[in-house]
Every structure is written in C-alpha cells, then in structure tokens.
Amino acid sequence: MRKNSAKNNRINGEVQRALSSIIREVKDPRVSPFTSVTDVFVAPDLKTCKVYISVLGDEKDREETKEGLDSAKGFVRRELARIVNLRNTPEIVFLMDGSIAYGVDMSKKIDDVMKHDEESRAMRGEEDV
Q1: Segment 29-46, tens digit of pLDDT
Q2: What's the N-to-C CA distance of the chain in angstroms?
Q3: 3-state class of 90 per DSSP?
Q4: With bands split at pLDDT 50, 70 and 90, how would you rate the model's confidence at 2?
Q5: In whole angstroms, what separates CA 64 from the centre of its chain?
Q6: Which of 9, 37, 34 is nearest to 21 (CA)?
Q7: Whole-number pLDDT of residue 104
Q8: Distance between CA 14 and CA 94 in Å, rounded?
Q9: Of 28, 30, 98, 111, which residue has the fewest beta carbons closer than 10 angstroms?
Q10: In this structure, how many other beta carbons lie within 10 angstroms of the beta carbon of residue 94?
Q11: In sequence order, what DSSP letters do the residues of 30-70 get, joined into one string?
C-alpha cells in the first residue's frame, strides 16, 4: 500500500476521528480540555501512527498535555483497537503541532498592525478609503 493511497487516507481519517473522541475521555488532569488532533499519519504497514496534537494555551499546558497523553498511550491504543477494526493496532507517537498557535499569533499580530494603522490615520485626520 502506497503512503498516499486512498485506502491509507481513509484509515488516517478514521483513526483521527477515533483519537479525537478517545482523547476527550482521558481522565489524566494534565491533559488539557482544549486538545485537538490536527493530523494523523498511519504507516502503510499499520505498525506506527504519528498523531499531531495542538493545545490551546501556554507552553506549560502543551508540555503537561504531552506528558499526560504519553502516560495514557496504553489506554488510547486499547480504545483505538476497540473502535477501529484494523489488522494491527498501531503504536502511537504523539507530536506537538504548533500550526494553530502560530495562526493565532499571526492573527493577533495582524490585528495589532491594523489597529496601529487606524490610530495613525486618526491622528493625521485621514479618512478610510
């Protein structure tokens, strides 16, 4: 099975949906309730699975959530095997995805620039075009 085959894409989507719901069930207090599964890559041989997660919060929240998920790997894998019927249940590797935090940061910077631009126009007495 090729890495980007239709079958592999379906498996990635199913595993992502299942992991999103399983992570909400993790009872570890270190796991933030604002944790999202942004992407999943299951190896073609179904042995390993890279799970990209994003956590809304500061760096401490991200580190604690990663630690909590790493300690709950057994539970997550068992639940994944129960929900998704695969020949092999993949070994899970959690990786932090900074794309959402990066997007929020860029949006804030754009808003700051726009606000500064409006203030400078108001000080000069210019109207919006």
Answers
A1: 999 998 999 999 999 998
A2: 56
A3: coil
A4: low
A5: 15
A6: 37
A7: 79
A8: 17
A9: 111
A10: 22
A11: TS-TTEEEEEEEE-TTSSEEEEEEEESS-HHHHHHHHHHHH
Q: Residue 85 has which token pair?
A: 């019927």
Burial status of residue 40 (CB atoms within 10 A of its CB: 0-12, 13-18, 19 or more): buried
Query: Where do we find the tokens 């073609």?
Result: 44
Q: Is-contact 98 40, C-beta < 8 A?
A: no
Q: Indicate whether 128 pLDDT > 60.
A: no
* Tokens 């009872």 -> residue: 27
- Kindly report, residue by residue over 70-123, the tens digit of the pLDDT: 999 999 999 999 999 888 899 999 999 877 777 878 899 999 999 988 888 888
